[in-house]
Amino acid sequence: MGLFGKIKEKAFNEFIDIIEWTDDTSDTMIWRFPRYQSEIKNGAQLTVRETQVAVLVNEGQFADVYQPGRYQLTTQNMPILTTLKGWKYGFNSPFKVDVYFVNTKQFLNLRWGTANPIMMRDPEFGPIRIRAFGSYCFKIEPDPIKFIRNVAGTDGNFTTESISEQLRNFVITQFTDYLAESKIAALDMAANLNEFSANLTQALKGDFSEYGIELTKFLVENISLPEAVEEALDRRTSMGVIGNMGAYTQMQFADSLKIAAENGGGGSPAGDAMGMGMGFAMAGQMANQMANPQNQQYNGAPNAQMQGAAVPPPMPGQTMYHIAVNGAQQGPFSMDQLTAMVQQGQLNAQTLVWTAGMAGWVAAGTVPALSSLFGVVPPPPPPLG
Fold it and tell me: N or C: the chain end with fewer CB closer than 10 Å?
């Protein structure tokens, strides 16, 4: 080869472009090949790797699209661009064109969540607020032109972060609408997460497709209730385990007496000992009533069975009284126990009491046998006749 031929070959090799994209990121969706004044030489080598698509854009107009492979850019394999440029007889000079590489892989584990609580009407709890979060996966549709036109535009480095906020808005809107229409009780939501995920995947596909994106998977991972509702559920569960509201209240009362006695709440050794004894006595009575549910009362009113033979009679010479605390019956208590309760502020003249022979519940201060506990002298009985 002569000297002139070597110079020509060297110049030709210097002008040939190698156009390719080696993606070293995990979130880049579109990347524009950089070049000085966007000039591409005739015969440039274009390499499109797996999970990539290359798109030529000429002055804002989409031209040829290349699937994975290796191409030499000539008029023979650039039919659309050749038509746009009007190259009827071929060309030898450089031309200007933008080359966009589109990442067609599946983007995984994009997170979504409710920034603010969602208001809904629950059939059991009424109006409540819930939060939810999860993840979703998507990829760009096989024809990338819709995505470039509607989303990326002329952005030369478009990532998932650029569109994730808009996609989250789609997700929250559809999730809120579906949750309201499903009318599933809050307690049953955890058992329906798979159904939520499958149905929402179908509901969101249309919204994603408008942007040239294919939603491949959508997951609802957790639906949480407000802290106050969760605490109420915990209390309800505890009461369900105990099985009896009256026994539960009585157990709480007995525990408070023992704690007060152990912490010196009575103010004197005698009061502390009496309080501790009352606590243990109450705990024993609670256990006895749990074993004999027919002894329980409802809403503070005497049970008909209690007035019968189901309740053992008091010891000779003692009158036992029942008291009402927060609408729940407690007792029966002896006079000594009632005295200690008055000293500890757990019984006052307005507390409702009942004992055998009374027609109904009355204030403790109006019972002659108990009035001395409060320093009150009962009024004289009305005159006969």
Answer: C
CA distance 294 to 165: 61
| pLDDT, tens digit, 9 for 90 and up, residues 37-75 | 667 777 889 999 999 999 998 888 899 999 999 998 888
Q: In sequence order, what are the residues at sequence separation of 6 or more whose Cβ sits closer than 8 angstroms to the Cβ of residue 318?
A: 334, 335
Whole-number pLDDT of residue 55:
93
> Distance between CA 363 and CA 299 in Å, rounded?
16
pLDDT score for 65:
93
What are the CA-CA distances from residue 151 to residues 162, 212, 217, 277, 359 (Å)? 9, 8, 21, 77, 81
Over residues 136-175, the pLDDT tens digits come to 999 999 889 988 888 877 677 888 888 888 888 888 888 8
**Selected residue with higher pLDDT from 236 and 268:** 236
- The C-alpha atoms of residue 194 and residue 168 are separated, in whole angstroms, by 19
What span, in angstroms and rounded, lies between the C-alpha atoms of 132 and 368? 61
Three-state SS letters, the chain: CCHHHHHHHHHHHHHCCEECCCCCCCCEEEEECCCHHHEECCCEEEEECCCEEEEEEECCEEEEEECCEEEEECCCCCHHHHHHHCCCCCCCCCEECEEEEEECCCEEEEEEECCCCEEEEECCCEEEEEEEEEEEEEEECCCCHHHHHHHHCCCCEEECHHHHHHHHHHHHHHHHHHHHHHCCCHHHHHHHHHHHHHHHHHHHHHHHHCCCEEEEEEEEEEEECCHHHHHHHHHHHHHHHHCCHHHHHHHHHHHHHHHHHHCCCCCCHHHHHHHHHHHHHHHHHHHHHHHCHHHCCECCECCCCCCCCCCCCCCCCCCCEEEEECCEEEEEECHHHHHHHHHCCCCCCCCEEECCCCCCCEEHHHCHHHHHHHCCCCCCCCCCC
**Cβ(131)–Cβ(218) under 8 Å?**
no
Q: How far apart are CA 60 and CA 58, in angstroms?
A: 5
pLDDT > 60? residue 290: no
pTM: 0.54
Label the pairing between strands 18-19 and 44-48: parallel
